[in-house]
Design a protein that fits this description.
Shape: globular
Radius of gyration: 25 Å
Helix content: 40-55%
EC number: 5.6.2.4
Largest sheet: 7 strands, parallel
Family: Belongs to the helicase family. UvrD subfamily.
Strand content: 5-15%
CATH topology of the largest domain: Rossmann fold
Pfam family, one: UvrD_C
CATH class of the largest domain: Alpha Beta
Number of domains: 4
CATH architecture of the largest domain: 3-Layer(aba) Sandwich
Distance between the termini: 41 Å
Catalytic activity: ATP + H2O = ADP + phosphate + H(+); Couples ATP hydrolysis with the unwinding of duplex DNA by translocating in the 3'-5' direction
Bound molecules: adenosine-5'-triphosphate, magnesium ion
Strand order of the largest sheet: 13-14-12-15-16-11-17
CATH superfamily of the largest domain: P-loop containing nucleotide triphosphate hydrolases
Protein name: DNA 3'-5' helicase
Number of strands: 17
């Protein structure tokens, strides 16, 4: 912990310091990846608190992901400013909603709907519309899109026709199902994930007394990753602010990657127009990455088009030279995964900690082949950060059971409060089938047992550290850990989607699967969508501090015909490729020869669900007929990813939401 408020400023450069010292009025930081935006705002809050200018409880810092919020809380603690709220929009809204619901509406806040897709299915059935599984999922996604963009059922067809090129065909039917779905939710007194923001906005809009209460509580607002704020989130922010302007936003228009939730960088780019008295700071020193990585990132953005691109800032690396980026073409996906795993093993052998390495891909279904290859190579890994443990079904179930038991407290005959804590946990877990002895053999049963045993060990450690702690304390600790992603597992290589890697950094980053169809994803058709894919790759590239590897494979499996091409975004960047738009080759690097190791790896499998394929048509698509097409998959993945993350933050298991 820095000794004084001034010592908090020591770790900042002059521009970052300007941000930290501008504690009143609107502040906008426009800057590229790795320039210390998040650091500047974290230090700003810490400085303000330590200098006695900001009340910790009157500051609300909003970040974009669950993990980012957890990291910010951790940083603030380290800087001696614990107690500041750092949350996602959803979690901040949910808390307020829970608090104000009894007064605004009466009774308790309705539960979040557990099986949303089922509710949509029921709505469709009531409208006498038959949907198969894929259609059902698409309709659900459409309803979600409509809600995040604040489109009511009646307006849905017209809005889609006007604003979207990827319009679904039966918008009238979807609108009908959507209206029925809303009706069913009201009838059953449940709300869905999107309602959390919508209802908060509605209440703050209608009830001035409640809005005033919130405004008295929070005086200072800080928003990270502001380029990805949606109109609805902006509305909420405006309601929180009222007529005040103590708002500090930081963002990078070139990292706008959530436009499918309605986000646009316009709020960031128009900030000065809206707040003419704003302090605007630009940061260009890149503290994160080597000149090689920065060069590549600049080159990638050099080809970008659109409004965001007009505002890009050339980054200047502050670091020593590092290795050149590696570009590798593989014959097929398993070979790519194996090659990646081998390189990762070499890096670990050379002293790079596994936790400092990440493999990033476009859609989550790409992870499996990498999980396999890393397991084969004996490399520990964790899926999407360290959240794997808390994502496991049995851990989520156990969490629900423990929470229930903690709420029931001493009244629950199952628990004897005098028993201080692991025995209580064992008692609750025994209702989930946990036994003190592990089941024989390995496999799913054993894995499940191991997870629950880890929870008991955690309870033991917790009690040691905090004698007299209650079950409620433990539940709070578990929530905190789940939020901060401190899983009680070994530090492993991170496997994550590009979307969820936003704001994070690793020593070594492997960007895999960089083919046309994946990057940009087939779903991206319009120019704007292609540009967003390019920004997504930019986000990926700029996650690397030192080692950066870009790879792709020419076919999916050893037997298949191939025909894949490297991503168009690599044109002009990778050595030997024709430059796009007449630009020179940038980025340096070594292109390795294709690794075309053809091996048969058993039967063809569905690339989405992994089922063995027998039908020739299915084999051609590498997808069984039950699974969605690439296009659906992409949309679904993006929404699911985002939602799963947000859902965790508000204590809802992801499966309840989608
Ligand atoms: P992104 O756009 O990816 O979110 P960012 O602009 O938020 O990036 P940070 O994550 O805040 O950047 O900082 C990137 C890295 O550079 C971090 O490791 C941070 O600690 C380091 N860094 C930032 N500013 C400085 C500085 N003034 N001195 C030393 N290191 C710094
Ligand atoms: Mg950041």
């Amino acid at each position: 912990v820095p000794e004084s408020a001034d010592a908090v400023l020591d770790g900042l450069d002059p521009e970052q310091r300007e941000v930290a010292l501008a504690l009143h009025g609107p502040v906008c930081v426009l800057a590229g990846a790795g320039t210390g935006k998040t650091r500047a705002i974290t230090h700003r809050i810490a400085y303000g608190v330590r200098a006695g200018i900001l009340q910790p409880t009157s500051v609300l810092a909003v970040t974009f992901t669950n993990r980012a919020a957890g990291e910010m809380r951790g940083r603030l603690r380290q800087l001696g400013a614990a107690g500041v709220q750092a949350r996602t929009f959803h979690s901040a809204a949910l808390r307020q909603l829970q608090y104000f619901w009894p007064k605004a509406v009466g009774g308790e806040l309705p539960r979040l709907v557990e099986r949303k897709v089922q509710l949509v299915a029921e709505a469709a059935a009531r409208c006498r519309i038959r949907l198969d599984r894929n259609e059902l999922r698409d309709v659900t996604s459409e309803i979600e899109w409509a809600k995040v963009t604040q489109t009511v059922p009646a307006d849905y067809p017209a809005v889609v026709a006007k604003t979207r090129r990827d319009a679904p065909r039966d918008t009238a039917e979807i609108s009908q199902i959507y209206a029925m779905y809303e009706q069913l939710k009201r009838d059953r007194s449940v709300i869905d994930f999107e309602d959390v923001l919508l209802l908060t906005v509605a209440i703050l809009q209608d009830r001035h007394d409640i809005a005033d209460h919130v405004r008295r509580q929070y005086q200072h607002f800080v928003v990270d990753e502001y380029q990805d704020v949606s109109p609805l989130q902006q509305r909420l922010l405006d309601l929180w602010l009222g007529d005040r302007d103590n708002l500090c936003v930081v963002g990078d228009a070139s990292q706008t990657i959530y436009s499918f939730t309605g986000a646009t960088p316009e709020h960031l780019l128009n900030f000065r127009t809206r707040h003419p008295n704003a302090t605007v700071v630009k940061l260009v020193r890149d503290y994160r990455s080597t000149p090689q990585v920065v060069h590549l990132a600049n080159g990638l953005l050099g080809q970008a088009r659109g409004r965001a691109a007009e505002h890009r800032l050339e980054l200047v690396s502050q670091r020593e030279k590092g290795p050149e980026a590696a570009y590798t073409e593989y014959g097929d996906e398993p070979a790519e995964a194996e090659g990646t795993a081998r390189r990762i093993r070499d890096l670990i052998a050379a002293g790079v900690p596994a936790g400092e390495i990440a493999v990033l891909y476009r859609v989550n279904s790409q992870s499996e082949v990498y999980e396999q290859a890393l397991s084969d190579a004996g490399v520990p890994y964790q899926l999407r950060g360290a959240e794997r443990f808390f994502e496991r079904a049995e851990v989520r179930e156990a969490g629900v059971a423990l929470r229930g038991a903690a709420r029931a407290g001493g009244n629950d005959s199952l628990l004897d409060d005098a028993e201080g804590l692991p025995s209580q946990v064992r008692a609750v877990l025994s209702t989930k089938g946990w036994t003190t002895e592990p089941p024989a053999g390995s496999g799913a049963m054993r894995d499940r047992w191991e997870s629950l045993a880890a929870l008991v060990r955690l309870a033991e450690d917790f009690e040691q550290a905090k004698p007299g702690a209650t079950l409620s304390d433990l539940v709070a600790e578990l929530d905190e850990r789940a939020a901060a992603q401190h899983a009680p597992t070994v530090q492993g290589v991170t496997l994550a989607s590009l979307h969820s890697a936003k704001g994070l950094e690793w020593d070594a980053v492997f960007l895999v699967g960089l083919t046309e169809g994946m990057m940009p994803i087939t779903y991206a058709r319009t120019d704007e969508q292609i540009e967003e894919e390019r920004r997504l790759l930019y986000v990926g590239v700029t996650r690397a501090r030192f080692h950066l590897s870009l790879s792709w494979s020419l076919s999916r499996s050893p037997g298949s015909r191939g025909g894949r091409r490297p991503s168009r975004f690599l044109n002009g960047l990778r050595p030997g490729s024709a430059a796009l738009g007449g630009r020179g080759t940038v980025g340096g690097g070594v292109e390795r020869p294709a690794v075309t190791k053809r091996r048969r790896r058993g039967p063809a499998l569905c690339r989405v669900c992994g089922k063995t394929l027998t039908d020739a048509g299915e084999m051609k698509l590498m997808r069984c007929e039950d699974c969605p097409s690439d296009m659906d998959e992409a949309l679904y993945e993006r929404l699911r990813d985002w939602r799963a993350d947000q859902a965790k933050e508000i204590g809802q298991p992801a499966y309840c939401v989608f």
